[in-house]
TrEMBL record:
Places the protein is found: Periplasm
Species of provenance: Snuella sedimenti
Keywords associated with the record: Signal
Highest taxon, organism lineage: Bacteria
Main location: periplasm
Domain Ca3427-like PBP: 99-180
Listed InterPro entries: Ca3427-like_PBP2
The family this protein is said to belong to: Belongs to the bacterial solute-binding protein SsuA/TauA family.
Name of the protein: ABC transporter substrate-binding protein
PANTHER family: ALIPHATIC SULFONATES-BINDING PROTEIN-RELATED (PTHR30024), TAURINE-BINDING PERIPLASMIC PROTEIN (PTHR30024:SF47)
GO cellular component: periplasmic space
Entry annotated with the keyword Signal: yes
Length: 284
């Protein structure tokens, strides 16, 4: 039995992984796939990939592109969710800020440098023509719990996170959502370390085959909306809206999308150079 470690955020996007793990589908193929939750998001997963703590990551597109360009020994092997991520822009419910324009020059809570919450703060700032050097300030808070503490205690002013995962915090009056910022690219990809690509590609292909079969039929699972609502503490109508908006992919991310994403990150000074498609992506 080959042990392989995989990481992802503890969010509804990754329920298909847990269902296939619970059904023992990887073990039937001779693979002991060990799932690791990363509440800290993409920045934490990039670090784990670099330090060989995980072999595979289900990770935000923008974050892994930045990490690979900066030397992370990994490559994208597939798109996982092809629709954009709908980032909610949140403040404390007691905050005086009412509009996104009010946030200009205030402090954004981010899970860590290079995370989605960090990089999407730049996208939001660009959308409102802010000065990226003067109008963006950051407070590292590690995860969603850290964001709750930072915003309610006044250590940070706003926080970008996937709006459906933060909806329970909005419903209970902890956060107030004052806007949205969709990512201008497919939100999640599957990345693998160069080591597993070079030495265990057959296992990697098998893992992708299993998860692709699951995601292609995910919306057809009986009462999947109720399962998600119960598992993640969400309202049924919110889950149904999310399911209608979300499309999984079973394909390799294409060169046009990668280059367009790189160009936007380069224009924001998030990456220092634009690299060839083959530097970022590996076709199994």
């Amino acid at each position: 039995m080959k042990q392989i470690n995989i990481g992802g955020v503890p969010e509804h996007f990754n329920l298909a992984w847990h269902l296939t793990l619970n059904d023992g589908l990887y073990k039937k193929e001779g693979i002991d796939l060990c799932w690791h939750d990363f509440p800290g998001g993409t920045g934490a997963m990039c670090k784990a990939l670099e330090e060989n703590e995980i072999d595979i990551a289900v990770i935000l597109t923008e974050g892994i592109i930045k990490a690979i360009i900066e030397g992370n020994p990994a490559k994208i092997v597939q798109t996982y969710v092809k629709t954009p991520l709908n980032w909610g822009i949140h403040v404390s419910n007691t905050s005086p800020y009412r509009t996104i324009s009010d946030l200009k020059g205030t402090k954004a809570a981010i899970s860590r440098n290079g995370s989605g919450s960090h990089l999407m703060s730049y996208i939001n700032a660009k959308n409102y023509n802010w000065d990226l050097k003067k109008d963006l300030k950051f407070k590292v808070i590690n995860d969603l719990d850290g964001a709750v503490t930072a915003l309610t205690q006044g250590n940070a002013d706003y926080f970008l996170w996937e709006k459906f995962m933060t909806k329970p915090l909005v419903d209970t009056g902890i956060f107030r959502r004052i806007g949205n910022c969709p990512s201008p690219w497919p939100c999640f990809v599957i990345a693998a370390s160069n080591d597993i690509i070079e030495n265990n590609a057959a296992y990697l292909k098998t893992i992708l085959k299993v998860i692709n079969s699951a995601t292609s039929k995910f919306k057809e699972i009986l009462n999947i909306d109720k399962t998600i609502a119960k598992h993640y503490g969400q309202q049924l109508e919110d889950v149904r809206e999310w399911l209608n908006l979300t499309e999984w992919s079973q394909e390799l991310i294409d060169e046009t999308t990668v280059n367009r994403t790189q160009q936007q990150l380069f224009d924001l000074n998030i990456i220092s150079e634009i690299v060839p498609y083959s530097t970022l992506v590996h076709e199994l």
